[in-house]
Amino acid sequence: MSPKELLYIEDALGHEAQMKAACTDFASQLQDADLKNLVSQITQKHNECFNRFYGLLK
């Protein structure tokens, strides 16, 4: 893997980690159960994307 590709993956990992943290924080502040569930699902999708990008490094 080239250095440029590694930098791309590093950026993508950082983005996904940031989005997961933001969604987790936002979900904890929501009172509406439907919205909370939706944001929790989005959090899970970002976690899955993070794991896929991380898997590229193995």
Descriptive report:
By secondary structure, the protein is mainly alpha-helical. Helix content is 86%, strand content 0%.
How many helical elements? 2
Sheet with most strands = none
Q: What is the chains' assembly state? A: single chain
Low-confidence stretches: none
Q: Mean pLDDT across all residues, rounded?
A: 95
Order of secondary-structure elements = HH
Helix content percent band: over 70%
Strand content: under 5%
Structural class: mainly alpha
Radius of gyration from the alpha-carbon trace, in angstroms: 14 Å
Q: Distance between termini?
A: 11 Å
Total count of strands: 0
Global outline:
elongated
Structure summarized in a few sentences:
The protein has 58 residues and is an all-alpha fold. It is built from two helices and no strands.
List keywords for this structure.
58 residues; mainly alpha; 2 helices
How is the topology of this model organized?
Layout: H1 3-29, H2 33-55
Helix pairs in contact: 1-2
